Amino acid sequence: MVSEKLLVLLRDGRKLMGILRSFDQFANAVLEGACERVIVGELYCDIPLGLYVIRGENVVLIGELDLEREELPPQMTCVSAAEIRRAQKAEREASDLKGTMRKRMEFLDLD
After folding, report:
1. 17, 49, 71, 102: least CB-packed within 10 angstroms?
2. By percentage, how much of the chain surpasses pLDDT 70?
């Protein structure tokens, strides 16, 4: 298992990829050449992190990546870190607006 390329899903929703160099009984792990994969709609960006230590209590899922298989569907587009941050901000603002509109409409009670 050590020296395998892994995908690690964290409790806060982040997805990290890298080569497993070490782990312990608490699921603490060290990834070499780690990057954070950020996905917004059909856009994605791999943000390099380098050597990364992950605290086991933050790990939700660890999975081995198949290096011979394509990682992403063909319609996904790789963009820069700045562009993916703008897309995240726009998505967050749209979500906040939707929540605000729902709160404003609750008083109608259309049931």
Report:
1. 102
2. 89
